[in-house]
Amino acid sequence: MKTQFLKPIAMSHEVDFYDGIYGHLATDPQVEVRRETYGEDLGQASWMTAGEARRWFNLLQLHSGQKVLEVACGSGGVTCAMAHHTRAACVGVDINAHGIEAAKNRAERDGISARVSFQVVDAGGRLPFPTESFDAVFCNDSINHLPGRAAVLQDWHRLLRPGGRILFTDPIVVTGQLSNEEIRARSSIGFFLFTPVGHNERLLEQAGFTIREVQDVTDAVASVSRKWRESRARRRERLVPLEGVEGFEGLQCFLEAVYILASERRLSRYMYLAEK
Ligand SMILES: C[S@@+](CC[C@H](N)C(=O)[O-])C[C@H]1O[C@@H](n2cnc3c(N)ncnc32)[C@H](O)[C@@H]1O
Fold it and tell me: Domain total for the chain?
């Protein structure tokens, strides 16, 4: 039976997260916060460290002449890093137009726009690419924003050539008790799918994938969210004029909820590597 989701209810402190981030990428306090949060800044808007990114690019076993799709690529920093690291051609899609504009500018600046392209796409539906047109699909910390997980995985399976790999993380795997207020705070930035432990494995197999690796990668969520929140708090005076008081506090509440739930292992992040 198909799941019907209620439409998100606008809340007074709902957080305009991705527009805020992708719209102010180059402002001084954002750059400083990113440096303090990630150490090595790939341009990610997620819980992924640069070390994780490199390890995961390697797990996709990509090389020059191949083609990879990054679903929900944000402002394209990770897509460009993947193109540099693997030498493969990369296509990034995201629903956020500010993110895609920044991504195109980044590829241009890096001199790799012949090999890296970006499109605004709602990845919750069938993706606008031919069957068996990619060697890999990569999606970091974003599958939780897409409704209809079974259909999403089936579509990724369709896009892959035989033997192709997918690697995605799900940072919203339910591994403990959550109060309604915690769920509200953790999902205040948009559509969220909370997934019971073991469910992604079942859906991957139903979509026709062979699972190669599943890893608990929750530590990075606790560490990145704590550093991010503390670094922002130290720059409150400079961030409030950009974000407004409500926007600033809303994002701080969100980051606090992320930290508490990850450090107590009530919400976990898992990495899934699977093959067609
Ligand atoms: C946590 S960010 C991760 C971005 C990037 N993968 C990274 O690691 O930095 C989640 C991304 O999902 C995107 N997103 C949310 N809903 C989407 C949808 N329906 N289709 C495509 N992208 C979506 C957001 O715009 C945002 O860029």
Answer: 1
d(CA 152, CA 82): 22
Give the number of the atom of ligand 1 that is nearest the alpha carbon of residue 96.
Answer: 25
Q: Which tokens in the block code for residue 20?
A: 């805020």
Establish if 66 belongs to a structural domain. yes
| Residues 125-167 pLDDT 10s | 999 999 999 999 999 999 999 999 999 999 999 999 999 999 9
**Is the residue at 81 inside a domain?**
yes
Query: Among 7-11, 64-68, 101-105, 192-196, which is the least confidently predicted range?
Result: 7-11
Instruction: Name the token pair of 115.
Output: 């090999």
Over residues 165-187, the pLDDT tens digits come to 999 999 999 999 999 999 999 99
Taking the C-alpha atoms of residue 27 and residue 251, their distance in angstroms, rounded to an integer, is 17
Q: State the distance from the centre of ligand 1 to the C-alpha of 142, rounded, in angstroms.
A: 5
The residue count for the chain: 276
The span from the CA of 229 to the CA of 254, in Å, is 9
* Closest protein CA for atom 26 of ligand 1: 74
Q: How many CB atoms lie within 10 A of CB 205?
A: 13
Q: What would the pLDDT profile of 45-88 be if each residue is shown by its tens digit?
A: 999 999 999 999 999 999 999 999 999 999 999 999 999 999 99
- Domain range for 255 is 17-275
Look at residue 9 and tell me if it is in a domain. no
**Residue 3 belongs to a domain:** no
| CATH assignment at residue 255 | 3.40.50.150
